[in-house]
Amino acid sequence: MLRRMSDTPQPRPLTIERGYPTHAPGSVLITCGQTRVLCTASVSTDLPPFLIDPATGVPGSGWVTAEYAMLPGATPDRKRRGPDSRATEIKRLIGRSLRAAVDAAKMPGVCITCDCDVLKADGGTRTASITGAFVALADALRWAQHQELIDADPIRSPVAAISVGLVEDRVVLDLDYAHDSRAQVDLNVVMNAAGEFVEVQGTGETTTFTRAQLQAMLDAAAVGIARLIDAQNKALG
C-alpha cells in the first residue's frame, strides 16, 4: 500500500535497537518502515597493507570498511546467496560514508568492519544500512577505547542517509518499494551532522529533472537526515 504523499515529505517510522544479540562489540537492528537491517561492527588489528609503513611496519592510521548482503528471505522471491555487482556497489558506498564519520589517524592499528545484513527489504536498504551502521560503529569505537586499543574517540560527526525521489511530480522522502518502483527520479543522499554532503547518488528513472526539483529533493533529504541523526544520538545516549 502506498503511503500518502503529503505536502511536507515525511520519513517512514524509525527504530534503532542497540545491543541486538551478537558477539560483535557494535550491534544494531534498524527498522525503517518495513525495511529491517542488522548492522554489526567488529574490531580487529588486521589492516589493509597500504596503511602499513613498509619501512617501519607501523600502521599510520586505522580503517573502516563495510560488507552488505541480503538474506535469501529478505525479498518476496528468494534471493540467491553470494555477492553480486549491486551488493559490491552498496558496500563501497557504506564504507565511504562511515569513513567520512571518523578521523582514522586517531585509531591507528584498528580496523572496524561493519556488516549490514538485510533481514527484510522494502526499499531504502542501503540508506538504512548507513544510518544503522554508524550507531554500530560508534559502539564498537567505545568498546575499543574501553579495551585501550585507541586513546580517544575518533568520531568527527555522525552520518546518516536517506532516499528521496519524485513520484507523480511530487517529492517523496524515504521511498518504500511501492514508491521506488514508481519513482520518476530517485536519489540517495548521505550527510553529516553539520549538514555537509558525503555522497549524492541520483538518477532520472523515467524522466529528466530540473535544478529546482533537485534542490527541493536535497532540501527534503536534509530535513530527513537531521531527524535520523537526532534518532542516532538518542539511541547512543
Describe this structure in words.
The chain is an alpha+beta fold and 237 residues long. It has one domain (14-236): 2-Layer Sandwich (Ribosomal Protein S5, domain 2), CATH 3.30.230. The chain has four helices and nine strands. A hairpin with a 2-residue loop joins strand 2 (26-32) and strand 3 (35-44). The longest helix is centred in the last third of the chain and has 26 residues, at 211-236. It is globular. The model has no long low-confidence stretch (mean pLDDT 93).
CATH fold naming = Ribosomal Protein S5, domain 2
Average pLDDT, all residues: 93
CATH fourth-tier homologous superfamily: GHMP Kinase, N-terminal domain
One letter per element, helices H and strands E, the order comes to EEEEHEHEEHEEH
CATH C-level: Alpha Beta
Largest sheet: 5 strands, mixed
- The termini sit apart by 35 Å
Radius of gyration: 18 Å
Low-confidence stretches: none
Widest beta sheet: strand line-up: 1-2-3-5-4
What is the CATH architecture descriptor? Answer: 2-Layer Sandwich
Please work out how many helical segments DSSP would assign: 4
Beta-strand portion reads 25-35%
SS-based structural class?
alpha+beta
